[in-house]
Amino acid sequence: MEIFLAVLVMLGLIGVSNVVNRFLPMIPVPLIQIALGALVAMIPSGVHLELEPELFFVLFIAPLLYNDGKHTPRDELWRLRAPILLMAVGLVFVTVFAVGYAIHWMIPSIPLAAAFGLAAILSPTDAVAVSSLAGRLHLPKSLMRLLEGEALMNDASGLVAFKFAIAAAITGVFSLPKASFSFLEISVGGLLFGAVLAFLIIGLRKLLRRFGMEDVTIHMLIQLLTPFMLYLTAEHLGVSGILAAVAGGIVHAVEDDRSRTHSSYNQLSVSQLSTVSTNTWSVILFILNGLVFVILGLQIPDVSITVIRNPLLNNLQMFGYAAAIFAILLVLRFLWTLVFTRTGKGSSKSELPSLKILLMTSVSGVRGAVTLAGAFSIPLVLNDGTPFPERDLIIFLAAVVILLSLLSASLFLPLLARRKDAAQGQSLLEEAQVKVLTAAIQAVRYEATEENEAAVSSVIADYRQWIGQAESKKSPGKGTRLDKGTEIQLRLSALNTEREFARSQLDEGRITPEQADMFFRMLDQMEVLMANPARMWKAMLKLFFRRLKHPFARNAGLDRFAGKRKDLEAVRTLKLKSSEAALQSLLEQNGSSAHREERSAVISHYREVLERFNRVSAVTHRHDSTFHEQRKELHGFAIQAERNAVQAMYELGELSREAAGELRRRIKAREAVVLEQDEMA
Question: Which of 416, 445, 473 delimits the end of a domain?
Answer without folding.
Answer: 416
